[in-house]
Specification:
The structure holds two protein chains of two kinds. In chain A, about 75% of the residues lie in helices and about 0% in strands. By secondary structure, chain A is an all-alpha fold. The mean pLDDT of chain B is about 90. The chains are: A mainly alpha, B mainly alpha.
Amino acid sequence: MKKSLFRTKIKTQIKQMQKVFIISLFTLLAYTKAAYASGALELNHSGQSTYPLPAWGMLAILLGLGAILVVLVWFVGRKKGSNAEDFLTGGREIGHGMIHASVIATWIWAATLMVSSWTAYSYGYIGPWWYGLGAVIPLPIIGFLGKRLRNVMPNVRSYPEFIKFRLDNKNHILLTIISIIVSSSVGVMIVTGASVMVTAFADLPFWLVAAVFLIIFVSYTSIAGLWASVFADSIMTLIMYACMGVILIGTLILVGPGTIYDGLVSVIQTKPILQPGVSEIISANQHDALNWLNIGGIGFLIVNIIGNLGAVICNQTYWARTIAAKDTKTISKSFLSAAFSWAPIPIAVATTLGLYALSKMLVVGETYSYNGISMLFTEASAVAPLSAFLIMGFVGLICFLVAVFGASISTGAGEIMSVTTCIVNDLYKGYLKKEATDKEILFQSKLWLSISAMALFVIVMFLRSINFPFAGMYQAMGISFSSAVIPVVLALIWVKTNKNGVFWAILVGALSGILYWSSVGFDMSWGVVWSNVIVMLVSLVVVVVWSLIKPENFDYSSMKELSLNKSMKTK
Amino acid sequence: MLSKTAFTIIYSIGLIWFFAAGIYTYKVVIKDFLELKRNK
């Protein structure tokens, strides 16, 4: 009886929220349509570059989002991180809805929205599908692996901790370091990318924006640790869907697929140069916008799958969501549903925004204006916000920016939390102070959240000062760390996996890929593709052959009670 | 080269998939939030 009353209450509240959402959506669209009709239909080349948003407005959006998260986490979950176990594991009682949304939020990077639109602008209609379907593959895989991890080692707090007990200390330290580097690199890319975007649209100093992002990450995760991160991710996911939904419906009404198609046909027929100074191959891919066998897009698909496997499976952020889930059924259900729900985001957004820019033949380096407000098309990867602005004006631009902020904050906070878990749980508790009390671990966790944020700030500012080429950083990360994917998976599922085989497979695999990539001059097209393939194949061969020659006979059932924190109870 | 009809269908699949995923996400997240409120 009580349960059915609760269900009725939920249904009523969902219906009410749907009404509010639909009314808000139509109000926004009515405003946008009026603005669009008043003269923004033609793309004007104004020849001058201005910031479309005032600095105070941009800061208000950013700080407003941060303040909402801090207040909500404080009111709802300030007691959730009262001990080290709950702070680092989220209490291991989070339900399907929040894990589902958190996986989506942490896997939507600013790049998901920016780079996927770039793939549409560069490879035509098939680019977003390769991006979305390629990048989503790691999610069901880690859902399966996370379920396995929780079954064999219910008290685990991080995946390197599992490696310590399944393999040995050298593998544990190696994978802890890899996890810290991967999470930090993603954090650096997130903060830099989001800050660069903000400074492109408002007259704000880069250091201030980067600092504000990092302060937001730490402010709410310090309150309740992993639970706060997952809770904030859920809110951000709802905001992101709403913002992207407004842009998609707006474009459908104001532009429509027919107009975009006609524009793409014109691109194929007239073959304009849209990215002056780039190679002929890139232009040829753009002039092949309606071909599903676009060769550049296929190469991108291979890099996308292998690089993303490394970014997920070597990254504690995603394992943390499997550890925070209330049971193993929730893990597999949530990661599968998250994969289903994540893929259409880059597909729909990039098909809309990236193809709009290509169909309108927007040229990199030119300035375009909407109702007299100008915006410079700085680089091909910045195509999405420009399209949103040209289609829907400030409504489109602000919706896009809020979505990117949401993506950046949720992923950035998750990565800092992941770095903290690896440092405190695996290094501090594992080696530096094995007898550390719960209170000490909690204190160290909060301390390292702040230290990690400060370290990231220093790295971000340093890389910015030397104009570090971020375009190749993600590819370099894929080549350097994807070699750990197969050894880690085999350590989890195969009793014969040899500890030395895992260690050397990771090192030799990475070295082979890096050597090959350097031998082809760090080529960013097919050189990257083959380097990724080599990394995976070499690591596979080394670990499998080594394990067949010197097989172990590991008993996974011996891990049931194991943990770095001996005082912890099994849940 | 893709026909206009095929392009429109593919474009629509992306949009429909997006909104189906969005509605599902709203539903399960709100359900969890209400449960949090109830268990507080």
